[in-house]
Amino acid sequence: MRILVVGGGYVGMYTALRLQRKLKRRLRSGEAEVVVVTPDPYMTYQPFLPEAAAGSISPRHVVVPLRRVLPDCTIVIGEAQRIDPVKRIATVTTLATGEDGTGAVEIPYDEIVIAPGSVSRTLPVPGLADHGFGFKTIEEAIGLRNHVIEQMDIASATRDPAIRDAALTFVFVGGGYAGVEALAELEDMARYTARYYHNIKAEDLKWILVEATGRILPEVGEAMGKYAVRELRGRNIDVRLDTRLESCEDRVAVLSDGSRFPTRTLVWTAGVKPAPLLAATGLPLNERGRLICTARLTVEGAEHAWAAGDAAAVPDLTSDEPGRETAPNAQHAVRQAKVLAENIVASMNGDPLTEYRHSYAGSVASLGLHKGVAHVYGRRLKGYPAWLMHRVYHLSRVPTFNRKARVLAEWILAGLFKREIVSLGSLEHPRAEFELAAGRRPGGGDDCQ
Fold first, then answer.
1. Stretch 191-218: mean pLDDT
2. Whose CA is closest to 211, among 132, 274, 268, 261?
3. Measured between alpha carbons, how far is 372 from 382 in angstroms, rounded to an integer?
4. Residues 14/185/239/383 CA torsion (nearest 10 deg)
5. CA-based angle 177:8:336, to the nearest 5?
6. Cβ contacts of residue 71 below 8 Å, gap of 6+?
7. What's the rounded mean pLDDT across residues 187-214?
8. Complete DSSP assignment for 71-101
9. 3-state secondary structure at position 163
10. What is the pTM of this model?
11. First to last CA, the chain
């Protein structure tokens, strides 16, 4: 019996972890096998990306190494390109594909968990692909931190006022969790960093949040969303509601209200969409491109196929609204993974399956150090209490005791010592100095001859 898990994010890792515990004897005897196919050898705890970008948490503590937490599972670093639900075969490309003369690998399975997650939803905005930053991976978070500090270095060194103004202007598009928390944490970090520059003051930095709707952070409720806007504007952050990004060609952000901002930093966090793999499964999709699932987390009309998280449209049994689906967020993903794994084991044993049912508890969001908003079980919190709840909640959800202890230790140390303000942008091009020493232009030609 081979259970193939496609994806190593929330659903993929937690499902495999639960299966590892429930099928421990079968896995070790060889009666069962759990294979996890994932592009990265780690799971990223995304709620901590803003704090990693701000330097409050070390990047290596935001990720969970899959081989360590899933020792009884087989980890395949690669990407599923196609899934044949009739033949029950997944076509996977790995890091070795093409290197050793082989093509994609076909992995047969008995049961499959489709959980590739989501990717950034971009729009055909002129210049976005050339100049935009995403904020969905740990690499993007650390790259953005390095970039912000680098822009401050440029502004400090240049004599050209136009270059200085563009370097100190930071535009974020999208007023959801990712955009608001990333902007708030980085603004906090940059404001602190400015004190170490002789010719840059905190008020010289220009931060702009662009949101196409009339509110930000809709998950925390209208009242807390309005409070968040007031809090951000009180920090001299320009919040533009009911506004869209029209263009960012030539490093100029042009907004739908006619404003133009020369900028070297444009961060796009305007939503996500299901992974492209879903379109290559031949399985039923809804109008948003998500797999149509039952409350038991099986794929509608397909045997031996399961799904949850961002990739799945799961009916919300706690809602009185007909046809309502569970929100594609981590709160549901982690709980769905548990039910999904239990149902796979029940299916193997011939036992009845359980329906997924969870009432939405609420949301918390950070607005920088010691600032936040929360709407949990009908109670509204703001400021320091909300920020503390944000940290306590996410600390409780970080996988493994080892990660919890490391994150907590870093928070304690961060409270005792000053922030780190170093940019390690050279990490993104580690061979650049060696190439220069060898007389080659960095990035030119092949890596090896």
1. 94
2. 268
3. 6
4. 90
5. 70
6. 20
7. 95
8. TTSEEEEEEEEEEETTTTEEEEEETTTTTSS
9. helix
10. 0.87
11. 45
